[in-house]
Design brief:
Length: about 230
């Protein structure tokens, strides 16, 4: 990337949604998102909280470049994504977005280290750096002593920490977390949220989508979603 383009990207918001809508066909059509405006700057920790059916999943899919809006614009690091090819969107997604899901999505018969290493294959990490980057990511989440373990013998909290290591191994510009404590008890939930606090203090941009007001309250900024509309909570 030329120096001027890199400088412009550094000054742009990580995420910017402009009058973004998503409508699904039907009788009548379903307006899942309606004229959404959102700006997430570098280093923000944002939670988006709302009940089932509020548009959270649709918003997550668009933010993660897994779906396209019906109208409006989505800029990632200042790059317009709406008309980008599927290949370009995949490159952006792999190199700039980390994902953490409620259900972990770890390969059960591969070691903790292998699960994190596999994430480097599609994220642009140079081959010579992959092993060291995976080790560093696992150390960052406190699992350097579990490298050879299989996910099936680990607690839910440990599995979610592996998922976080996998999400941050490529140094993404933003971490998207979808109900990250949904399958965890209160103790393990607190541990994962403490880890998010640490990542935020290290400068990582986080967007956490949840129905849980306790999870939402940990964020620096809180946004409520209802009927496809976003409202910032004071």
């Amino acid at each position: 990337m030329p120096a001027t383009a890199a400088a412009a990207a550094a000054e742009a918001p990580v995420i910017e949604l402009r009058t973004l809508s998503r409508t699904f066909p039907g009788t009548p059509p379903v307006e899942a998102l309606r004229g959404v405006e959102l700006r997430v700057d570098r280093g923000d920790y944002v939670s988006i909280v709302g009940p089932s059916g509020s548009g959270k999943s649709t918003l997550l899919h668009i933010l993660g470049l897994l779906d396209r809006p019906t109208a409006g614009d989505y800029y990632l690091d200042g790059v317009a994504t709406g008309q980008a090819s599927d290949e370009d969107r995949a490159i952006l997604r792999g190199g700039r977005i980390g994902f953490v899901f409620q259900s972990f999505h770890l390969l059960p018969h591969r070691s903790v280290l292998d699960n994190v290493l596999l994430a480097t294959l599609y994220s642009g990490v140079p081959r010579a750096e992959r092993h060291d980057r995976a080790l560093a990511a696992l150390d960052r989440v406190g699992l350097s002593h579990r490298l050879d373990f299989l996910p099936t013998v680990m607690s839910g909290g440990e599995r979610q920490r592996v998922a976080v290591a996998r999400a941050v191994v490529a140094s993404p510009h933003v971490l998207l977390a979808d109900e990250p404590t949904g399958n965890l008890d209160s103790e393990n939930s607190a541990g994962v949220l403490d880890l998010f606090d640490e990542l935020h203090r290290d400068g990582l941009t986080l967007v956490v989508i949840t129905h849980d007001p306790t999870v939402s309250a940990r964020a620096q900024r809180r946004i409520r979603i209802a009927d496809g509309l976003l409202t910032e909570v004071a």
